[in-house]
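Onboarding guide, step 5: your first structure request.
Type a short instruction followed by the sequence, for example:

Predict the 3D structure of this protein.
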Amino acid sequence: MKKIALLILFCCAANGHAQSIYQKDFLFYWQTVKDNFAYFDRQKTNWDEVKTIYSWKADTIKTKDGFIHFLEKVNNELHNGHVYLNTNRDNSNRLIPSGSDMKISYKENQFVITELRENFNAAQCGLSRGMVVIRYNDVPMTMAIQEFLPMTIHKFDLDSYEYAANMVLAGKHNVKRKITVLENGVEKDYFPDALPNKTEENFKTLLEQKKLPGNIGYIKINNSLGNNALIKAFDTALDGFMDTSGMILDLRETAGGGNTTVARAIMGRFAQQERAYQKHIYIGEENETGIRRSTLELVTPRKNGYGKPLVILVGNWTASMGEGIAIGLEGMRRGTVIGTKMAGLLGENFTFETPGLKIPFSFPAAQLQRVNGQPREDFMPSPLVEDPTTIIKVAADQLQIKAR
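The system replies with structure tokens like these:
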């Protein structure tokens, strides 16, 4: 019987049924995620079922572009903005939160705009918080989200619904968006991309700085936490505020993440002694060995430290390393964090590459926690400030209280 089985396998291979490059790359991707993804306990994805559902589809792919879109679809099974390919095509969907300009929450069976990215397309075209989105490009939202809903989660899941809705409204790179909302019971259409989409443009400066009334310094990071040149620019800006009575560090526009070198450099200017700012748990190593490995990452004080009261501003577009700085400064008891819930991107990302087509893909392979052991993605600022027009005043009031 064994000889017959081997002969059948040999004949199938000889007749063209050997694994294609697309099948091999998919299986590599699937196994890499299975061995290393750090949040299966949270996302509730049935990863074995992912293999069953998608393996046969890999056999129908004929082009590299087709395979890229295929993996983009598979990534939705993990439904978090920290799971992505490091490449895309014109008809790929934008990533969230970096490619989005509004935040959608699912409330009472409705898709409600709960946050808008300041000075970006959605806000500029007239959309506002509280509006209920009913259609995207004339497709009802309940249908439009189907493209991004995980296939292996069979019961209603709020995280996956909101992930899907936010992916829909971020849109594809080559498609202009038409968003239909209910406004005071009346349907109204908005066209955010009548102007070029600002999520695909770079900021002109690494940061912004100004002195506010009450002798308060203000520095806003312009999505540059991955640029080492920010260290010098930040040092120069902060040096000019050493005589202020308090400082506001605005991280609400750090949607693109960054690196720990820049983050530790910034935090080091506020640190008074060497302190831990976040905890890493390496799930892949635990899966392989059965032994848990966890580490604390430290911030070391840098010269000419700023010791006055500090308030950190955060929101939906505070992502990844921006989230790390916020929880770090809070955990070091060095600053008060105010604003809205941050992006909630999961963990520390690692990048891998498929062996055949050389497609890079990233996902969280280590869990990140606050120094007190609480998950970073669950952090909530206090106080919550939902109105962007008042947040700087609230921060200034906080600083004046601390300075007394």
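Each response can be followed by summary notes, for example: Residues 1-16 have pLDDT under 50 and may be disordered.
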